[in-house]
Amino acid sequence: MYKITVIPGDGIGKEVMKPTLEILETTNISFDFINKEAGKDCYDKNKTNLPIDTIESCKNSDATLFGAVTSIPEQKSAIVTLRKELDLYINQRPIKSYSNPNINFTIIRENSEGLYSHLEEGNDSEVIALRKITNKGCERIINYAFNYAKKTNRKKVTAVHKANVLPITDGIFKNKFYEIAKNNKNILSDDYYIDATAMYLITNPEKFDVIVTTNLFGDILSDEGGGLLGTLGLIPSANIGDKTGLFEPVHGSAPDIAGLNKANPIAMILSSCLMLEYINKQTEADKIYEAVNKVIKENKIKTPDLGGNNNTTEITNEIMHNL
Ligand code: ATP
Predict the structure, then answer these.
(1) How many other CB atoms are there within 10 angstroms of residue 307's CB atom?
(2) Around 159, how many Cα atoms within 13 Å sit in the side-chain half-sphere?
(3) In ligand 1, which atom is closest to the CA atom of 249?
(4) pTM to 2 decimals?
(5) Is the C-alpha dihedral spanning 307, 311, 317, 323 positive or negative?
């Protein structure tokens, strides 16, 4: 029995979580789904966007499924806090186009330090944000990227940085990358600056196979990946640490379409497939991938972000039908 904390959140988070659980129920895996609160609705009710009880449940589960939450200015980001509390230092985001075979790469983003360390200070006239990079942080994420490349038969790992402008922080990152690359001779390695990468992802996406990068650069490149695919509604992500994992779509709570049954559930469904891979249920994950791929390839049942008029329920039913 796998203990899974389920945090639907708010906005479209709830709408994409429901079909995902329905699809997971079709597998023969035994799950104990534990529903927990976070986000705006939770804040309105409990005056906190992330109750301790939710954090504890995630810590004690095999994995967590997270929908999406709306940011609340007075509160620290629920997802950033969860990543920190659970020490989920890896953020893995596969970007795969179904129409352009040149777009098929995975971003491995460092998830625990960099510019997301909450180290900001200053006064009315001058403010500073600190970018924390550690040898340990670089080593564990870069090792993960090379191991991921081996496990998934990828050919190359590319380090993305800005070591010409940030020679100390990104110097550590780049040096560590080539030190680890030497021990992984079967995998090609190269590096690009973040600005060049932003351009090449559009002009020459075939250059990229596995990208490993620091926190903010990885966040920005992931949304660029959404742009390459035409929608954020197709991009899943895995947040992984040494003890547990949290799986969530890259998109946010999309208040503009919340409550309208228009959200594309595929990013959340694919995130649950990453969870299945994490708990070593590859066969079950592959079945769901196949059912989703069929819907996308057939190009008949499409939510509005994919250029169609179908709703969340209809695209879910089509995936269920394929299963
Ligand atoms: P956050 O700051 O939480 O990342 P955001 O407002 O920057 O949130 P999203 O909530 O991801 O970004 O929404 C960005 C745009 O993408 C919106 O127009 C939204 O409607 C659209 N969008 C996001 N996710 C989906 C989805 N699953 N299906 C359809 N459209 C989506």
Answers:
(1) 10
(2) 25
(3) 27
(4) 0.91
(5) positive
Residue 118 has pLDDT above 90, yes or no: no
Q: Which residues pair with 159 in a beta bridge?
A: 191, 212
- Do 244 and 64 contact (CB within 8 A), yes or no? yes
Cβ(146)–Cβ(157) under 8 Å? yes
How many angstroms separate the CA atoms of 323 and 317, rounded? 10
User: Cα of 192 to ligand 1 centre, how many Å?
Assistant: 28
Pick from 95-99, 110-114, 170-174 the range whose average pLDDT is largest: 170-174
- Select from 72, 232, 234 the residue to mutate for testing ligand 1; criterion: most ligand atoms less than 8 Å from CB: 232
Percent of the chain with pLDDT over 90: 93
| The dihedral formed by the CA atoms of 252, 248, 91 and 3, expressed in degrees to the nearest 10 | 150
User: Torsion angle of alpha carbons 283, 154, 93, 119, nearest 10°?
Assistant: 130
* Cβ-contact 171, 134 below 8 angstroms: no
DSSP string, 296-320: HHHT-S--GGGTS---HHHHHHHHH
Angle at 172 between CA 223 and CA 119, to 5 degrees: 60
Q: Which atom of ligand 1 is nearest to the CA of 11?
A: 10
Residue 252 near ligand 1, beta carbon < 6 Å? yes
| Closest CA relative to residue 292, chosen from 254, 310, 265, 252 | 265
**H helices within the chain, ranges in order?**
12-25, 40-46, 52-59, 78-85, 135-151, 169-182, 194-203, 215-229, 266-278, 282-298, 312-322
- Residue by residue, DSSP assigns 206-217 as GG-SEEEE-HHH
Q: What is the dihedral of CA 250, 208, 213, 278, to 10 degrees?
A: 50
Q: What is the pLDDT of residues 203-261, one digit of tens each?
A: 999 999 999 999 999 999 998 998 999 899 999 999 999 999 999 999 999 999 999 99
Q: Is 173 helix (H, G, I), strand (E, B) or coil?
A: helix
| Ligand 1: centre distance to CA 197 (Å) | 23
